[in-house]
Write a structure and sequence with these properties.
The chain is built from eleven helices and 37 strands. It has about 700 residues and is α+β, with helices and mostly antiparallel strands. The longest helix has 20 residues, at about 670-690. It is globular and about 70 Å long. About 50% of the residues are buried. Mean pLDDT is about 90; it is low at about 1-25, about 115-135, about 135-145 and about 690-705.
C-alpha cells in the first residue's frame, strides 16, 4: 500500500506535436480547468531527483514557464522526506541543472553563471546555475561550469575553475577525479580556422576529421590527461569503484553511416585510469553492446546488448561479464522483451533492469549468476521509470505516470515493498477536469492482438457518438504507453475521442511482433490501426462520419499513406511526414533504418520502396490535409512535405502547408507549439465537425464526463 504527502507543481514534457489544443482557458461546470496547450506548457517540470546518502532528503530541479514571455528557467530544490517540506536552494538568472550530493553534504550542480547572471540565494539556500554533464570543455562566463553550495545557504562556490575545465562527465565516488569525453582537434585546425574567417569554407560531406576521446580531470590539481587513442569514438565513461579502471563503449568497426559495410556493432571496453591499451570485453557479439555498470566490488560489469547486427527492431538482453574477460553471461535469454536501465543491488548479488511490456514498463531483478527474473514493482495504474538504488542499497526511488497524473515520485524498499508516495508535482492534476481513458485490445490483421488506449471525450454520454481522432506514433518502432498524454486530454476537452494504437512493428512486445512490419510499412500495420477504428465505432463511441487521422514522423507517414488508402477520414494532419521513401533514403540522417525495414537498398528493393510511398498514390487523396514541418528537420527533411504538398495542390486537393523556421524534427518553441495547436484544431474542427470551429469552451457538458 502507498503512503505519503502531496506537494505542488509538475512534470509534463508536453508531447511532440501530433497532439494539439486551442488557447482559451475555460472552467468546466465543476470549476476545474480543461487541458489546453498553454496549460500543458505552464505545468512546471520536476526532474533530476537524487536521494541523499542517508535517505532523508531529495535534491531535484524545478522548471517553471513564464506565461508572458514563454521562457523557462530551472532551479535546484531540496525536499525533506520526513517533514514533507521543500525549499529552493538556488536562484540564478540563468538557472541550474543536474544536482548531485557531494560527500561533505553540499550539493553540486551545473550552471552558466556570469556577471550578467549574478545570483541571490533562494529560500534557505544560496547561489547556483545549469548545464548537464556530458563532457567537453569550457566553463561559464566566469570560468566554471560546476558549482557547489551548502544546504544552509550562502554563495555557491566554483567546484573547479579554468577555461579548460570540463563541463561534465562521470566522477569517482569521492569526487576527486572526473572522466569525460572531448573531441580531438582536426589535423588542419589552424588552416581551417583561417579559411572560415575569410568565408573560404567549402567542405566535403561525411569526412571523419575528429574523434571523441576519454579524458581524466584531477579536481585538486586542476590538470587533465587524455587516456584513449586511435581513430575511434569513445562514449559513456564510468569509473570502477577502486578508481583504477574506466569502462566505456566504442564502435571499433571503423565504419560510418554511408559506408557499404556500415555496422552498429559497438562494444564495452575498459582502459586503465592512467591510460594505455584498451581491452574489448564483448568482441564476441556482433550486435550493439552499451551502458556498462560496475558491480559494487569492481570485478564485474553489467550492460545491455543486442544479439542482432544492424537491426532497427532488435531486443536488448542483460549481460554480465568479468573484468578479467571471458564469455558474457546472458541473464535474460528467455525474456522476449527488450531490457534497459541496468543497475546492481548493493551486495552485487542481483541485477535490476526495466522491461517495456505492452502499455506498461516493469522493474525486474535477477541473480547475477543467472536464473528466473522476478518483477519487483506492481503492475498497477502507473507506469514506473527512472529507478535509482539508494547508496546504501536499501531503497528504490522512482517516478510514476498514469492516464490521469504525471511525474509522481515514489520510494520503496529494495524488494519493491512498502511503496511510499513522496512528491506530486502537479498535485495529482486536481486542478484539471480530465477525460476517462480505457485500455483496449482488438484483433488486427491475421487475428493478432493489438493494444491501444481510447480517451473518451470530456463529457461523454453513453449512447451518443462523437468525432474521433486516430493518432499514430512515430518510429515505426515506438509505442504508446499508459502514462499521461496531454495531447489526448487536449482533444478530449474539445469533444473528441482519441484512439492511440500500437500496431505490429511497435516496441514493447515480442521480437516477432516488433519485426512483423518488415518490408510492409503501411501494410498490415495500417490494417491493425483501422481495425482499432472499427472497434471504437462498434463500441458506439466514434461517429463513422466524423473521423480524423494525425501523427508525426512515421505517424506522419501513416497519415499521408492512410488518406491514399481510404476516404473514411474527413480531415488529416501530418507532421514531419515521409511521402517518398526512395528519395528519403538519400535525404535522411538514418538511411540504415530503411535498409533494414525495406529489406535492402532502394534500387535492390525498388518495388517495396515505391509500393509504400504515399506520393505514388497522390491521385487517390480526397481527404483535406494540413501538412506541418520544421524547416531545419534533418531526420525528415522538409522536401518530403514540399513534394507531397505540391502534388496535392496541383491535383486540386484541399491542402495547406504550415512551416516553422528554426525548428527541427519536433516543434519546441512555445509560441510555435501554441500556434500549431490552434491551427490543427481549426483544421480538424472545420472538416470533421462540418460547422463553425468549436473552441475549448464549446465542448459537451461535463456532468458525467470526467474520470473523477
Amino acid at each position: 500500500m502507498r503512503t505519503g504527502t502531496r506537494a505542488a507543481s509538475i512534470l509534463l514534457a508536453a508531447l511532440l506535436l501530433a497532439v494539439p489544443a486551442t488557447a482559451q482557458e475555460e472552467a468546466t461546470e465543476n470549476g476545474k480547468k480543461r487541458m489546453t496547450m498553454e496549460e500543458s506548457l505552464l505545468l512546471p517540470s520536476w526532474r533530476s531527483y537524487r536521494l541523499s546518502p542517508d535517505n532523508t532528503k531529495l535534491v531535484f530541479t524545478k522548471r517553471e514557464m513564464d506565461a508572458e514571455e514563454w521562457e523557462s528557467v530551472t532551479h535546484v530544490w531540496v525536499h525533506d522526506i520526513a517533514t514533507g517540506e521543500s525549499f529552493q536552494l538556488t536562484n540564478s538568472a540563468n538557472g541550474e541543472s543536474n544536482p548531485r550530493w557531494l560527500p561533505d553534504g553540499r550539493v553540486l550542480f551545473n550552471s552558466r553563471r556570469g556577471e550578467a547572471a549574478s545570483e541571490q540565494g533562494g529560500g534557505r539556500g544560496g547561489p547556483g546555475g545549469p548545464g548537464t554533464p556530458g563532457g567537453g570543455r569550457g566553463g561559464g562566463a566566469d570560468g566554471s561550469p560546476l558549482w557547489a553550495i551548502s544546504l544552509s545557504g550562502g554563495e555557491a562556490q566554483p567546484f573547479f575553475e579554468g577555461d579548460d575545465a570540463p563541463t561534465g562527465g562521470t566522477f569517482t565516488k569521492d569526487y576527486s577525479l572526473l572522466a569525460y569525453t572531448e573531441a580531438s582537434d582536426r589535423a588542419d585546425k589552424e588552416e581551417w580556422e583561417k579559411r572560415q574567417k575569410v568565408r573560404d569554407d567549402g567542405y566535403y560531406a561525411e569526412q571523419k576529421l575528429t574523434y571523441t576521446h576519454i579524458w581524466v580531470y584531477d579536481v585538486e590539481a586542476g590538470e587533465k590527461k587524455q587516456i584513449t587513442e586511435g581513430d575511434f569514438d569513445h562514449r559513456g565513461p564510468v569509473w570502477s569503484p577502486d578508481k583504477q579502471w574506466i569502462a566505456f563503449t566504442s564502435n571499433r568497426t571503423q565504419t560510418r553511416m554511408g559506408d557499404p559495410d556500415r555496422s552498429d556493432n559497438s562494444d564495452v571496453l575498459v582502459v586503465s585510469a592512467e591510460g594505455g591499451e584498451s581491452r574489448n570485453l564483448t568482441a564476441s557479439n556482433s550486435g550493439s553492446d552499451r551502458g556498462p555498470v560496475w558491480s559494487p566490488d569492481g570485478t564485474r560489469i553489467a550492460y545491455t546488448g543486442s544479439l542482432m547486427e544492424n537491426s532497427a527492431a532488435s531486443q536488448s538482453d542483460v549481460f554480465v561479464i568479468d573484468l578479467a574477460g571471458g564469455e558474457p553471461r546472458n541473464l535474460t535469454p528467455n525474456m522476449d522483451y527488450s531490457a534497459s536501465g541496468v543497475r546492481w543491488s548493493a551486495d552485487g548479488s542481483k541485477v535490476l533492469f526495466t522491461i517495456a511490456n505492452g502499455l506498461s514498463s516493469h522493474l525486474y531483478e535477477v541473480s547475477a549468476r543467472g536464473g528466473e527474473p522476478k518483477m519487483i514493482l506492481p503492475d498497477d495504474e502507473y507506469i514506473y521509470g527512472g529507478t535509482q538504488v539508494s547508496e546504501d542499497g536499501t531503497k528504490l526511488l522512482f517516478t510514476g505516470s498514469s492516464p490521469y497524473t504525471t511525474g509522481e515520485l515514489f520510494m520503496a524498499d529494495i524488494d519493491g515493498s512498502n511503496i511510499q508516495h513522496v512528491l506530486s508535482p502537479t498535485n495529482g492534476m486536481e486542478d484539471f477536469d480530465l477525460a476517462r481513458s480505457e485500455f483496449l485490445t482488438w484483433k488486427g490483421a491475421d487475428g493478432w492482438d493489438i493494444d491501444g488506449i481510447l480517451t473518451y471525450p470530456l463529457g461523454y454520454e453513453p449512447g451518443q457518438r462523437y468525432p474521433m481522432i486516430l493518432q499514430v506514433h512515430g518510429g515505426p518502432h515506438g509505442r504508446y504507453s499508459k502514462g499521461f498524454n496531454a495531447g489526448s486530454q487536449i482533444w478530449a476537452a474539445r469533444g473528441y475521442a482519441v484512439l492511440r494504437g500500437n500496431p505490429r512493428g511497435s516496441s514493447g512486445r515480442t521480437l516477432e511482433f516488433s519485426n512483423a512490419n518488415y518490408m510492409d510499412w503501411g501494410g498490415k500495420d495500417f490494417e491493425d490501426l483501422m481495425a482499432g477504428v472499427d472497434r471504437v465505432v462498434e463500441m458506439g463511441v466514434a461517429d463513422l462520419d466524423m473521423l480524423a487521422i494525425m501523427g508525426g514522423s512515421y505517424g506522419g507517414f501513416m497519415t499521408f499513406w492512410g488518406i491514399t488508402q481510404t476516404d473514411r477520414f474527413k480531415a488529416a494532419v501530418g507532421h514531419a511526414a515521409i511521402s517518398d521513401w526512395y528519395a528519403f533514403y538519400g535525404q535522411t540522417d538514418i538511411p540504415y533504418l530503411l535498409e533494414f525495414g525495406f529489406g535492402g537498398l532502394p534500387w535492390e528493393t525498388k518495388e517495396t520502396f515505391e509500393r509504400f510511398s504515399p506520393i505514388e498514390y497522390a491521385a487517390n487523396v480526397t481527404t483535406p490535409l494540413l501538412i506541418t514541418h520544421g524547416e531545419q528537420d534533418r531526420r525528415v527533411p522538409i522536401a518530403q512535405g514540399e513534394q507531397y504538398y505540391r502534388s496535392l495542390k496541383k491535383l486540386g486537393n484541399d491542402v495547406e502547408f504550415l512551416r516553422f523556421p528554426r525548428e527541427g524534427h519536433g516543434i519546441r518553441e512555445p509560441r510555435h507549439r501554441i500556434f500549431l495547436d490552434a491551427e490543427q484544431a481549426k483544421w480538424i474542427d472545420k472538416y470533421v465537425k462540418q460547422r463553425r470551429p468549436i473552441s475549448d469552451g464549446d465542448g459537451p457538458s461535463t456532468n458525467s464526463s470526467s474520470k473523477r
